[in-house]
Amino acid sequence: MLTRRQIPLMLATLGAIALAGPAWSQAWPQKHVKIIVPFAPGGNTDGIARVIGQRLSETLGQQFVIENKPGANGAIAAEFVAHAPADGYTLFLAATPQIATLPALTKTPYDPVKDFDPVSNVGTNPFVLTVNPDFPSKTLKDFVERIRAEPNKIPYASGGSGSLGHLTMALFLKRAGLEMTHVPYRGGGPAIADALAGHIPVYFANLSEALPHAASGKLRLLAVSSAKRSAQIPDVPTVSESGYPGFQTLTWNGILAPAGTPKDIVNRLAREVALAVKEPAIAQKLANLGVDPLGDRPEQFAATIAADIALWAETIKIAGVTFQ
């Protein structure tokens, strides 16, 4: 039983403990922070990481260093972050495949939900159905009629079996009741190169891939996969408004932290990302990458991840994809 003298001492001690956590986290960061990118330098995800990392370095007073760990479709980077200390000094600039599709295709050395704490979804990127200019279809309606008239005769490219472009196309073909021949490539670069050259007529490309070639007329854009038209190509209709209501697929790039990272660090990071993407200069840099800036809260990002895991798992079944 506590004496009257011990009670004030106990209350003071409890107060100090209660303040210790916030005081510690307010001091974060005390050293450089690593942002792990699952792909090689120069790609879309790497570009987003560098834009956000530079801004966080400026606002938080410590360097946010980009570290590229490509390989195994991003699983190497994901595993590294999953097993890193949960202290706020190792972050993951993840893309949809590492979290929503790869674990549905094969056994991964990490759990996409249990091993990470969502911080903020930096931005989203739709897909756009593109055709070579020599292909006769000018609208999605024309495209559907042409494909329906020649089932399994017209090929389409993808960046690989199980890639988001492949799965988006498979989902659309299922919805429209069409049949085409899938030609997988070793990445989006070779796929779009052959589409540009006219070696293959159709490619459901990531918007960031298609943008540089749309203005020049080297690719014709028929429809985007987002729920609303893209600000970068406002004249291109959505798949949804073109006769397939509710159709939507997006890829995203967001910041994840190792599971167990202090909530105040996670929340502070989310606030900084939200502020950053609202700055006109940052928003423009992201738009140049084909990205629609978002900067949402941890709980919103977690809901997106849960919905995407369900969506892509079902799409993988529809497409009949197996990991190779």
Quickly list its features.
single chain, 324 residues, alpha/beta, D-Maltodextrin-Binding Protein, domain 2, ten-stranded mixed β-sheet, 44% helix, globular
Explained architecture:
The structure is a single chain. This protein is α/β, with parallel strands linked by helices and 324 residues long. It folds into 2 domains: 29-124 and 251-319, Bordetella uptake gene, domain 1 (D-Maltodextrin-Binding Protein, domain 2); 126-242, Periplasmic binding protein-like II (D-Maltodextrin-Binding Protein, domain 2, 3-Layer(aba) Sandwich), CATH 3.40.190. The chain contains 11 helices and 10 strands. Strands 1, 2, 3, 4, 5, 6, 7, 8, 9 and 10 form a 10-stranded mixed beta sheet that branches. Helix 2 packs across helix 9 (263-278), helix 4 (96-105) crosses helix 11 and helix 6 crosses helix 11 (298-319). The longest helix has 22 residues, at 298-319. The chain is globular.
Give the C-level CATH assignment of the largest domain.
Answer: Alpha Beta
Radius of gyration: 23 Å
Shape: globular
Note the total helix count: 11
* CATH topology (fold) name of the largest domain: D-Maltodextrin-Binding Protein, domain 2
Instruction: For the record, give the distance between the C-alpha atoms at the N and C termini, rounded to a whole number.
Output: 67 Å
* Main sheet attributes: strand count, strand direction, barrel closure: 10 strands, mixed
State the total count of DSSP E strands: 10
Helix-strand string: HEHEHEHEHEHEHEHEEHHEH
Quote the beta fraction. 15-25%
Ranges with pLDDT <50 over ≥5 residues? Answer: 16-24
Derived structural class? alpha/beta
- How much helix is in the residues? 40-55%
CATH level-4 homologous superfamily of the largest domain: Bordetella uptake gene, domain 1
Q: How confident is the prediction overall: mean pLDDT?
A: 91
- CATH A-level architecture of the largest domain: 3-Layer(aba) Sandwich
Q: How many distinct folded domains?
A: 2
